[in-house]
Amino acid sequence: LRHLQRIYLWHAQVSDADLASLRDSRDLELLYCHGAAGVTDAGIAALQKFHKLRELTLNGAQVTGVGVKPLRNLTGLSLTSTIFTDEGIAAVAGLTQLENLFLKIDIAGN
Question: pLDDT by residue (tens digit) across 90-104?
Answer without folding.
Answer: 999 999 999 999 988
